[in-house]
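Submission sheet (multi-component)
Chains listed below:
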Amino acid sequence: MKSIMDLRNDLDNNKTTHTDLFNEAILKAHKYQDEFNSFVTIMDNMYYTKSDTLIDGIPYALKDNFSTKGILTTASSNILKDYIPVYDATVYKKLKDAGAVLVGKTVLDELAMGGTGTTGHTGSVKNPWDPSRQIGGSSSGSAASVALGIVPFSIGSDTGDSIRKPAAFGGVVGFKPTYGRISRYGLFAFASSLDHVGVFARNVKDTAIVTDIIKGKDERDMTSLPDENINYVDNLDNDIKGKKLFYIKEVVDLNLYKDAGEETISVLNKFYETVEKCKKLGFEVDEVSVDEKLLKAIYPSYMTISCAEATSNNSNLTGIIFGPRGEGKNINEIMFDARTKGFSELIKRRFIQGSYILQRENQERLFKNAQRLRRIIVDKMNEFYEKYDAMILPASGGIAPKFDSEIDRMSDRYLILENHMAIANFGGFPSITIPNGMVNNMPIGLNITGACFKDSLTLNIANKIEEELGYKNLIKEEYDV
Amino acid sequence: MVTKDDLKVYAAKLMFDMDDEGYDRTLKEFETIEKHMEIIGKFDGIENVEPCVFPYVIYHADYREDIANNTLTNEEVLKNAHDTKANQIKVPKVVE
Amino acid sequence: MYNVTIGLEVHCEINTNSKNFSWAKNSYSEYPNENIDTVDLGFPGVLPVLNKEAFRKSLMMALALNCKTPDVVMFDRKNYYYPDLPKGYQITQMTKPVGIDGYVMINVDGKDIKVGIHDIHLEEDTASMEHFSDYSLLDYNRAGVPLLETVTTPSLHSADEAITFLETLKGIFLYTGVSEARTDRGEMRVDVNISLSKDDTLGTRTEMKNINSFNNVRLAIESEIKRQTEILDSGKIVEQETRRFDEKQLKTYLMRSKADAIDYKYYIEPNIPPIKISDEYINSIKKEIPMLQFDRVNKYMNELGLSRYDAEILVHDKQISDYFERVISMGVDAKSASNWITTTVMGYLNKENKKISDICLKEEYLVELIKLVQDGKISSKQSKQIFEHVVTENKRPKDLVKSLGMTQITDENVIRPIVIKLLDDYPNLIEDHKKGKNTFDFFVGQVMKQTRGQANPSITANIIKEEIEKR
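Outcome: structure written.
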């Protein structure tokens, strides 16, 4: 399927109709479902309300942790396997009102807590570029459905890097704007202070188009930002001469990866090639230095904060008002049974950790220290943003991993390189991953992270770099031809 | 140090159980937590830093006007509950 | 005898149109599960949105209780599992509540006592449950209703003090309009902490939760004092624990020991950004707080010369107290106004089970009525009749005096001939009178009968006396 702008042209020139596009997308969704497993639900019926936006009549996919009235929403967990919401997430409502057509609800890591795409209750999502590899997560199906060309865009959520990592592994664009730019109402909470809504598409312009539609103040989300009167898509081509980029030496210094495999070296070399291209484009690019200890603490702090918040956020899953009812003689037993059966072991382990972190006697040492570290990192970044417009870094230290070889995010080599994108969640910074070429026939990504509220500029920078790199509208089956 | 029995108590307080191997794996993960905290605890003067709860703070205190609107019907309230009676959700007796 | 120390935690629902964090109606309803918004059920993805009015009223209460209000208010989560708590946590305040370090003045048996307020915080109510033999039903109408928790310091020392504090607090809720504080609807619930000791140090405390009437608070305190006294007398120690008061047995029972105390894992609610409170905002709220009961009683006693008894009756209902103040501002002396209001007016209201705002008794009418009596234009008895007409027909007392022909006859030249005729008709009764028998009232009654009650009683009495003596 073509990009949003091309489809817009076709629709406006009566070369196609929204019904044709929906049917085409559904057909493709079914065709790829067995092999790649992008969807929990593929829509049987089309719901379409005419509108005059750029995405009117355009099909899309929605991560299955957004509330959709009357449509099964599972968060890829058994504890919600029969849950049919009675209300619409704000994002879904905005897309509906804008005339976009829902194709399906996509698979995620259970309750969005994971980065592999292997923990959903309906099975693993495969990487479109190589089905023996992961697509990453947690917005696995949303990334895959765009990478497979089923839909031109999809919606995901991002708590640590859940949009931007799978975007990199799938060779597509993944963007989460500033915290609060898009309402979280209706997004099943994982870690509320880190959760972001965002967009997958196959080029930056499409990403901007969709973001323009779904952003905005929401009376149902107190953390949503006041409206700004900027259209991102209109500002993509602004001149970037003299704009300043930086990257952190301690993340990408080749000397740190002397004993790493050729794959990591290739990824880093690609990154440095891009740095040179950025300079050619007219950006100033500086290397900055950050205490390695601080960078190594990103992942632990992220895990600590996110597990703690997740434990509390998921306390509503008891099978009383919604979700499968447990069995038992009294109400405690039925709640207990519902949760015992409903959560996978991985989720339970994280909840136990989270509750331990929040225990009165541990809060200071664990939870609050992690929050303190979060502040040190955010302050450090904001210091940089006084001087620079955006940070660029590789989205990952390698290509998408094989199913049988999970990256150990805690191993010394990858502790920083695989986890730095959580910085953008800590500070609520707008952050986008765009394709940065191929290594071993698999896509890799470049991450660009701007200062808070500078969503337009971040997209503008990404668009310019994308133009220079030329990896646009990647779809595996077309790429091979 | 946290023991397996502690973990079982924590799980029970979170209203779930798992098999024995699950607790073993959880116990192993707790070593990771301790490793995490060792990393974080290394920062000099961290105790003087104000914990960061929100990504950023701007005071746009736009709370809600006090206007009432019941957005769900009784039918919608009960729609996902597996047992109902007299327009309410029915559950086995609550242990007092 | 032991020193008794009591601390109270009082939960009171705030009177708003909608719930604390959702749009659903905040009102007492007999239909279950009809005042509901997505937020109240804790559906995945919902977010709390703070009610401006609940927030304003909670600050008003904090100020009325002389609390310090913070520059920035925040909310916290209290995590625990219970079927009446849909989200699995309650949004409450710990870190930056609406008020801390306040106090309330109360008066117990004529003695002023300062009760410390540890803090006051805004939170949300739970769902209500109805229990049957083998099942329970859940109604979420109450889930999310704004709830204000007032926590005292351990500064009360008897059941009387505790009850007076609760009544004073209830009065403040009513005076500020923050809550109707109706215990019969469960709008006000009390947790009682109580400890006994031989000296000035605090003993081990026990807590009794969710007591739903002031009378039960008294009974619970008394029974717990008795229980703890018996334990201490026998040389044992009181365990720190949570107990349940059984109103039928008049005894408290163990609910939870200290070892089973729940760790609520409080942490700051990330979905509600901190709210900055400006001085202007605080001042605008302060202006809306009326003078409260304690101060009004002192004012009525010290400035207006009323008795504590009358003053307390007047301030019981703010509408009455306000009415009283308007009446005296119109030039009636405080004592007369107080007498009228506490007896005739309130007697009528009690009899009819009405509020002052329910009846047509304009302040100026009452003033007119009082003055008619004071000027001797009508008798006190007549004034009571006119009062009945005023409140039922909404007419001016002066007009009623005319239309009912109730103008008092004070003219001796009218009354004297009636008396003379009467004495002529009953010579034997004059004899009886002179022998010491009371026939005097008969003569007065007859004059009243013949003048249809219009004769001024004291003038009539004087003339009868004079005329009898002449004979």
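Remark: DSSP finds 17 helices and 13 strands in chain A.
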